[in-house]
Amino acid sequence: MTPKPSICDLTAANLARAIAKGDLSSCEAVEAHLGRIEEHDPQLAAFVTVDAEGARRAAQICDAAPALIGPLHGVPVAIKDLTDTAGLATTYGSVLFRDHVPAEDDLVVARLRRAGAIILGKTNTPEFGFGAVCTNKLCGPTRNPFDPALTSGGSSGGSAVAVAAGMVPLAHGTDFGGSVRTPASFCDVASIRPTPGRIPSPGRPLGWDMLASHGFLARGVDDLELALSVCAGPDACDPLSAGVVSDDRPLAGRPRIAVTPDFGVAPVAPDVRARFGEACKALARVVDVAEASPDCGGAIETFRTLRAAHIASSYGELLRTRRAELTPTVIWNIEAGANLSADDYLHAERRRTAIYRSFRALFGRADFLVAPAASVFPWPNEISDVMSIDGMQLETPIDYLAVTFIVSLVGFPVLTLPARRNVNELPFGIQIIAPPGSESRLFAFGRMIENELGFSHRRPPL
Predict the structure, then answer these.
(1) Residues designated catalytic
(2) What percent of the chain has pLDDT over 90?
(3) Measured distance CA(311)–CA(157) in Å, rounded
(4) DSSP H stretches of helix in 254-394
């Protein structure tokens, strides 16, 4: 028997419309979602911190305002606990920052607040975002709402579960090598990893670094587009943001898509390949499909090198001074970059450039590139790392992410959607990739296949 719909089943866009029309108050929306958190989070552990009183105060301000504050007026949202929130604990998933309360919001948080969004709390993440299972010494594991014995994915697992379970309609995430896309695939929600710089990060120490990006998770494309619309826009202190040029051309005719199960190099489980094949057959009903991939030779080694160098630079001092307090996963990640040379780094950048140009060439003959959003299905929470796929040993704990981190490497925007499946199958998602600046075309295409193919969120059996 299907449960009766509630406020918590509304999308962010529909909730915003209901509040704007006066059919629902901000306070009612907040209380309903706080109730859902109280009901389900003890089992799922999506939140590190819930700011019930702060959310109630913000809702009262929204309800007393003489006019709408912005497009997300009164809509509850959650923020991944890697991102600073003024006056609200931000732990980065680490006991080292258990009592850390930032004085200022990160820009993405400030823009959400200016749009009227109400922050209910901070969602769980592995320590500093490094880990295949969403757990740390403070909280977790964050459990998959479709099977609590299984992982929600790292590192935005808390946000994915909060959205899937109806604790919030919209959640913020961050994505370095697949950290919004993998949890979205595992938890049957949609996600967007926009063009790097589309959502500025003015506090980023390496201003031209485009491997990491803010993103969002939601239950549908409309909510992702709404969230991006209020958070996008240049900032003078983020050099990447000034270079993002929008490609707003509408979709014309029958879209052409290239499909690849693995970019020619990524390890992908046979059962994922089978599900991806089914998704491609469905897509062929509404688009022209051709198997094709950019030349991604050397992409795995290139990403390993660049990622390791960035992590060693950012966290090397912590390893030297606080090693005993760090998780083994974080220690491995930092040590991986300890002995890299300048030549290693520059060689990786040269290969990265060649891969980027190969992606560009492919988009001369295709509108979109589609690939699986994860190389494996969710595994038990007790297994900390994926070290083999279908009996094949992987060289490092991050290699299972190659199907997503290859896209991070070149900085193309990517939308993920749940793919249609039988009710008893585990969630599975696809990545839809487009050239930089093409988010509006991604959203238009995503809406089309949501509506025509049913590639959309299914409520978990909670």
Answers:
(1) 80, 155, 179
(2) 94
(3) 21
(4) 270-283, 299-322, 328-335, 342-362
